[in-house]
Amino acid sequence: MSKYKKQAHVVYKCDYHIVWVPKYRFRILTGEVGRLVDQDIRKLSEWLGCEVIELNVQSDHVHVVVSIPPKVSVSTYMGTIKGKIAIKMFKTYPMLKKKPYWGNHFWARGYFVNTVGLNEEMIKRYVKYQEEEERKEERDQNDFNQPELF
């Protein structure tokens, strides 16, 4: 797997660590429900053009490390994943709509997201020394293009 991905007009590496929970953090994501959530996250991610790098469905929360292309926002990704899975869960398991469960809400509002990428210090160093490196490359290029005088 290449570190960077390509599309028509962009080269990117947009990896995110996302965590979300069922409503009231009920421990419902076990057994068949957990397998169904895992399977649906993978299918929906592929449908959106995203690549699941790591996925872990715990009994009361979901962790995913996913590569999302720039044309898909994180909020669009999460809205699709949470919305489609909730609809499917309520159709497959209608008893989840009854008390003490959710009514019409399977997932809690919101989610945690963090970018996964290059080391922050590496980026700071790159930005700090970028101009100096470009000048050095430009000097080397000019020296190479100069005809030698004998």
Describe the structure concisely for a colleague.
The chain has helices spanning 31-47, 74-92, 120-145; strands spanning 5-7, 10-12, 15-20, 51-57, 62-67, 112-116. It is of the alpha+beta class.
What does this structure look like?
The chain has 150 residues and is α+β, with helices and mostly antiparallel strands. It has one domain (5-117): Transposase IS200-like (Alpha-Beta Plaits), CATH 3.30.70.1290. Helix content is 41%, strand content 20%. The chain contains 3 helices and 6 strands, in the order βββαββαβα. 13% of the residues are buried. The model has no long low-confidence stretch (mean pLDDT 84).
Write the SSE topology.
Elements: E1 5-7, E2 10-12, E3 15-20, H1 31-47, E4 51-57, E5 62-67, H2 74-92, E6 112-116, H3 120-145
Helix pairs in contact: 1-2
Query: Regarding CATH, which class?
Result: Alpha Beta
Quick one: biggest sheet? 4 strands, antiparallel
Low-confidence stretches: none
The total domain count is: 1
* Annotation field: number of helices: 3
What kind of oligomer do you see?
Answer: single chain
Write out the CATH superfamily name.
Transposase IS200-like
Amino- and carboxy-terminal Cα gap: 51 Å
Element-level helix/strand string: EEEHEEHEH
**Could you say what the CATH architecture is?**
2-Layer Sandwich
| Gyration radius, rounded | 23 Å
The portion of residues assigned to helices is 40-55%
Averaging pLDDT over every residue, what do you get? Answer: 84
| Strand percentage | 15-25%
β-strand number: 6
**Under CATH, the topology is which?**
Alpha-Beta Plaits
Strand order of the biggest β-sheet: 4-5-3-6
Structural class by secondary-structure content? alpha+beta
Outline, from the CA principal axes? elongated
